[in-house]
Each structure stands twice: as structure tokens, then as C-alpha cells.
């Protein structure tokens, strides 16, 4: 009986000396891991946003350049019907890519705004 009370006294003393219980320590580490993951997500979103903006400006420049070349050559009558359809398909694909990038940028901006981290 005496050993049992001595052992329980030691356990209680250890618990109070550290000031935390094991379950509390685990939940605190899980919270910090969650915060780290959230911070990584925010940093990744910021980097992706900058990359997407750069890609968007390049895609718009390329689209405008190709469109002006197409209009110039088409008005001069130097394109065959097959070339016209081929170029219009290419321009449509570029336009879809631009729309996709714009949607991605708005999605990333919305995420950063919700997390309170706007650039």
C-alpha cells in the first residue's frame, strides 16, 4: 500500500511540475502542424499568383500578336481556307488559355483574401 501511494504521489508531482498533460501536448503539436500547413498553403498561393500573372501577360501579348498577324495576312488574301481554320483554332485555344489563367488568378486572390493575406 505504501509503494502505491508513493508511486501515485510521484506521478502527480511529475504532472504538476511539467504543467501540461500528455493529451494537451499532443493537441498543441497538432495545432502547430496545422498552422504550418496553412502558412505553406498561403506562401504557395502567393507564388502561384505571381507566376500566373506573368503567364497571363505573356499569353495576352502572344495572342494579340498572333491576332494582328492573322488579320493582316487575311485582309491581304494570302491565306488559304485551311490556313484560316488552322489559325482560328489556334487563336481559340489561346483565348481559352487566357480565360483559364484569369479564373486561376481570381481563385487565388479569393483564397488569399479569405485567409487575410493579400499582396
The gist of it:
The chain is rod-shaped, with a radius of gyration of 31 Å. The model has no long low-confidence stretch (mean pLDDT 84). It is mainly α and 119 residues long.
Question: What can you see in these coordinates?
Answer:
The chain has 119 residues and is mainly α. Helices cover 89% and strands 0% of the residues. It is built from three helices and no strands. It has helices at residues 2-18, 22-75, 81-115. The longest helix has 54 residues, at 22-75. It is rod-shaped, with a radius of gyration of 31 Å. It starts with a helix and ends with a helix. The model has no long low-confidence stretch (mean pLDDT 84).
Provide keyphrases for this structure.
mainly alpha
SSE arrangement:
Blueprint: H1 2-18, H2 22-75, H3 81-115
How far do the termini sit from each other? 66 Å
Number of strands: 0
Q: Helical stretch count?
A: 3
Protein structure class: mainly alpha
The percent range for strand residues is: under 5%
Radius of gyration, in angstroms, nearest whole number: 31 Å
Q: Overall 3D geometry?
A: rod-shaped
What are the secondary-structure elements, in order, as H or E?
HHH
Q: How helical, in percent, are the residues?
A: over 70%
Unreliable stretches: none
The biggest sheet, with number of strands, parallel, antiparallel or mixed sense and barrel status, is:
none
Average per-residue pLDDT, rounded, comes to 84
Assembly state of the chains shown: single chain
Amino acid at each position: 500500500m505504501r509503494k502505491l501511494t508513493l508511486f501515485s504521489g510521484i506521478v502527480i508531482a511529475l504532472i504538476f511540475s511539467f504543467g501540461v498533460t500528455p493529451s494537451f501536448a499532443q493537441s498543441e503539436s497538432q495545432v502547430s502542424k496545422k498552422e504550418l500547413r496553412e502558412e505553406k498553403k498561403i506562401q504557395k498561393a502567393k507564388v502561384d499568383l505571381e507566376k500566373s500573372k506573368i503567364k497571363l501577360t505573356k499569353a495576352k501579348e502572344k495572342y494579340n500578336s498572333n491576332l494582328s498577324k492573322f488579320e493582316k495576312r487575311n485582309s491581304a488574301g494570302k491565306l488559304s481556307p485551311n490556313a484560316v481554320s488552322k489559325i482560328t483554332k489556334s487563336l481559340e485555344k489561346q483565348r481559352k488559355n487566357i480565360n483559364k489563367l484569369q479564373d486561376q488568378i481570381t481563385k487565388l486572390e479569393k483564397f488569399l483574401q479569405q485567409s487575410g493575406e493579400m499582396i
